[in-house]
Amino acid sequence: MRRVVLLAVLALAGCGEARQDADEPSGEFKVEVVEASFPETQHVAERAELKVTVRNGESEERLRNVAVTVETKPRGEDAALAFGRNVRGAGLSSAGRPIWVLDEGPAGSDTSSVNTWSAGELFPGQEKELVWKVVPAKAGTYEISYRVSPGLAGKARPAAGRTSGTFTVVIEDEPVPARVNDDGEVERGGEPPGGEL
Predict the structure, then answer these.
(1) CA angle 179, 185, 190 (to 5 degrees)
(2) Where is the composition biased (Basic and acidic residues) (predicted)?
(3) What number of CA atoms fall less than 13 Å from residue 104's CA on the CB side?
(4) Mean pLDDT score of the chain
(5) Which of 15, 76, 150, 172 is positioned for an S-S bond with 29, CB 3.0–4.6 A?
(6) Cβ atoms within 10 Å of 94's Cβ, excluding its own
(7) Structural domains for the chain
(8) What is the pTM of this model?
């Protein structure tokens, strides 16, 4: 009897959670990317930031859940991952391998999708910047794309405009030169005194 009551309580508790795609309107809405940046040259183990600023453009109504999807160009027919690629091979528990390690995603923007984040509610003309703090983990040349949508479920579609983009990024294996200055602070980049580390 106690088990039945416990299951009923758990079922009722789950009913109070609203789906992220609940009440998503259908149709086209003017949402756009205002600005985006990601360093074109990066170094393994040196932090980098992907920044995407989105705006509710000419829409006359608020957009309840603007979504931003980030994908690294896959190889062949592999599924696209946000900051990694699939690696095929026997004995792998997971095929996904990071190119960038996601250190910190945009605050409060997690969704049920592994490559889509929510910018939340945007009123007409309102902008919001999303920032991903990443650490490059694998040297090479990669393409990483981003796109914005006025909703998470696919019923709300973006109108024509700047809704996506791509960066070609070179990750170099050699670390950035670093030295400790006279104040005891670490300085990165440039040649250290004497041309040596």
Answers:
(1) 35
(2) 180-190
(3) 10
(4) 82
(5) 150
(6) 7
(7) 25-175 (2.60.40.10)
(8) 0.76
